[in-house]
Design brief:
- This is JmjC domain-containing protein.
- Pfam families: JmjC_2, WHD_ROXA.
- Helix content is 25%, strand content 22%.
- By secondary structure, it is α+β, with helices and mostly antiparallel strands.
- It folds into 2 domains: 227 residues, Cupin (Jelly Rolls, Sandwich); 82 residues, 50S ribosomal protein L16 arginine hydroxylase, Chain A, Domain 2 (Malonyl-Coenzyme A Acyl Carrier Protein, domain 2, 3-Layer(aba) Sandwich), CATH 3.40.366.30.
- A hairpin with a 3-residue loop joins strand 11 and strand 12.
- Helix 4 crosses helix 6.
- The two termini are 30 Å apart.
- Bound molecules: succinic acid and cobalt (II) ion (CO).
- Succinic acid binds next to strand 9.
């Protein structure tokens, strides 16, 4: 379903650590059923961004992370993005949520689909599922979407602009797919449906089976009976998006700096009077040309932009700060017993010089280097490990701030 915004890989000049981090994902050279008894390295080399891969029993004995009713409950929330796609009487229709349970069609009615985006942000089981894919950089991760469909339901033949793992979690879905050149769309529809769909492959996925599709592969998944599919999506930004966002970032940075060049205003004390007032003055063109020509940037600006942009939570994400926050001392006492977990909604990235948390860029100090990259990779700081670091008051006060913002949790199941 073509909806996710696109973006890119981060600045990745990160020092290699001696110990691989425990991330929930297979290690680069570990053979795993998740990838059809291949290693992540083999998968990335042969398939990632290159060609589709069908994996039978990628996760054997997999149970759906959410029940149908739990998914419907999520679709009823204001800060959860959901869509309802129906294909009744051969007509495509799209509605955006939230949906109260009685606003959804009856589960006895054929050919409708409910898509719920960002389930990993709200549910620990979905979050654990997405963690299995952390052999791919976090900066590429978009979210885990769950689709529920009644018999015959689907979103029509289409293509997406991102990489996706389509994991069947309940019931059966028939997937047809292929790399076709003609990606023209049917005009006048509320969703993107291919005009001429010519699939090369045809398969039925059962719970635990998974299909990887790189961007722009035409595909169509039709439910055979009631079914649920998880789609773990990875964003790939267009050059247009990156350019627009980078220039916006540069302009903001320049505007933020007091007395900076970016704050200079256009001036025209030499402007002569005109008798053709609608004509663009040559002086304007020349002066603005000079302002634009003075824009410059270096690798640091690019890294800062990428880290901030890619760690920015989506606009509908709301953090839940603790209702009665502990003071710093009590917080430290608690964490000595419980350890810390990054909140599911927190995005924490780093490079050799900086870290980026929920859209904010900060310098990675020598003391933060000792714990922050490890915390970002594993998303967990064990109580024992925390205990060894508590003498670092900069760390404890920073973590206390994050705790009060709801960015980290002392209770891992929160
Ligand atoms: C997709 O094709 O991108 C997913 C649609 C679905 O799960 O129904
Ligand atoms: Co799709």
């Amino acid at each position: 379903m073509p909806k996710r915004p696109l973006h890119a890989t981060p600045a990745s000049h990160v020092e290699a650590s001696s110990q691989p981090a425990r991330t929930g994902a297979p290690l680069p050279d570990e053979v795993t059923p998740l990838l059809g008894n291949r290693t992540p390295r083999q998968f990335m080399r042969r398939y990632w961004q290159k060609k589709p891969l069908l994996i039978r029993q990628a996760i054997p004995e997999l149970a759906a992370p959410l029940t149908r009713d739990e998914l419907f409950e999520l679709a009823d929330l204001d800060n959860v993005e959901s869509r309802l796609i129906t294909h009744f009487r051969n007509t495509w229709n799209l509605e955006h949520g939230p949906f109260a349970p009685d606003e959804l069609p009856s589960i006895k009615k054929r050919e409708w689909t409910l898509l719920v985006q960002g389930v990993n942000l709200h549910d620990e089981r979905a979050h654990a599922l997405i963690n299995r894919f952390r052999f791919i950089p976090d900066a590429r991760l978009d979210d885990l979407m769950i689709s529920y469909a009644t018999d015959g339901g689907g979103v029509g033949p289409h293509f997406d602009s991102y990489d996706v793992f389509l994991l069947q979690v309940k019931g059966k879905r028939r997937w047809r797919f292929g790399a076709q050149r003609d990606l023209s769309l049917k005009p006048g529809l509320p969703l993107k449906v291919l005009q001429n769909f010519e699939p090369e492959e045809d398969c039925v996925l059962e719970p635990g089976d998974m299909l990887y599709l790189p961007p722009h592969i035409a595909h169509d998944g039709i439910a055979e009976g009631e079914c649920m599919t998880c789609s773990i999506g990875f964003r790939a930004p267009s050059a247009h998006e990156l350019t627009a966002q980078f220039l916006y970032h540069l302009a903001e940075q320049a505007g933020d700096a007091p007395n900076a060049r970016g704050n200079a205003r256009y001036r025209d004390p030499e402007q002569p009077p005109v008798d053709r007032p609608a004509a663009l003055p040559a002086l304007l063109l020349e002066r603005v040309g000079a302002i634009l020509a003075s824009i410059d940037w270096n690798e640091k600006d690019i890294a800062k932009f990428l880290g901030s942009y890619l760690s920015e939570p989506k606009s509908n994400v709301v953090f839940d700060p603790p209702e009665r926050a502990l003071n710093q001392q009590k917080f430290v006492e608690r964490v000595k017993k419980t350890g810390l977990t990054l909140d599911r909604k927190t995005i924490l990235l780093y490079d050799a010089k900086s870290y980026f948390v929920n859209g904010e860029a900060e310098k990675l100090s020598a003391s933060a280097k000792k714990w922050l990259p490890e915390f970002a990779d594993t998303r967990r700081l064990e109580a024992k490990r925390f205990l060894t670091l508590t003498a670092d008051s900069a760390m404890t006060s920073l973590l206390h701030e994050w705790y009060r913002a709801g960015w980290i949790q002392t209770d891992p199941s929160a």
